[in-house]
Amino acid sequence: METTTAxxxxxxxxxxAQLIIRDLHARIEDKEILRGVNLTVSxxxxxxxxxxxxxxxxTLANVIMGHPRYEVTQGEVLFNGINxxxxxxxxxxxxxxFLAFQYPSSVPGVTVANFLRRAxxxxxxxxxxxxxxxxxxxxxxxxxxxxAEFRKLLTEKMKILKVDNTFITRYINEGFSGGxxxxxxxxxxxxxxxxxxxxxxxxxxxxxDALRVVSDGVNALRGPNLGxxxxxxxxxxxxxxxxxxxxxxxxGRIIKTGGPDFAMELEQKGYEWLLKExxxxxxxxx
Length: 286
Hints:
Layout (H helix, E strand, L loop, with lengths): L17 E11 L2 E12 L3 E5 L6 H9 L5 E9 L2 E2 L5 H7 L1 E4 L6 E5 H14 L21 H15 L9 E2 L5 H15 L3 E5 L7 H14 L5 E5 L13 E6 L2 E6 L1 H10 L2 H6 L9
Parallel strand pairs: 3-10, 3-11, 6-9, 9-10
Antiparallel strand pairs: 1-2, 1-4, 4-5, 7-8, 11-12
Helix pairs in contact: 3-5, 4-5, 5-6
């Protein structure tokens, strides 16, 4: 069963923001990875994207966010009626698209607090797709954030996510455990308040306690203003974050979509039966 056909992008201008992916093809060097992805995620919805290794899940996340290694050869990625493929990654983020990385990078010398403040300022500055791209000869006006306002917001979000105060004085991911790195990603999401959050295998490398803490943080942030796309191999994170829709990807396309119970069925049966039903083989490890 394929995903349903996406609605017209003009419809997204008056309602909740939508991510609409249509017939998306992408490759890295000479290897085609995405082979016609169709997917729609609206604000207020939580979708899970599952599938075996090598199916293209992480590639999809990177293409949505604008990773330069991937070349889009066909299709479109619309967010609130705007084609993200025409924008640089920072402009996609300013529009309200967020990606939590599977393997977050360390940034020595930059504290979590300083990074978050600059990121929040850039997010609030936003991006106007209708603004002229012609140079004006003047430096752009930056919308600074008063320190007191930033501290209040940061304290509120840290309380929700149960983050220790010493956390924000450390350099980004420098010496962090796997659980701390993922918690830092969720803290970024909380501070930036995106309209769409993509969680790329956030459960990877987490023990049960860390998984529960991260999941509780995601659940605390869910609501009508946030659309979530959870990318995962396994059902275990979905024990804590219940999705509205579950998709299975194989060989660069979504081959089946179901409701919340579909994830449990996959946990019990695995992927082989579904791939065989679709006439495909289990892909090799990425």
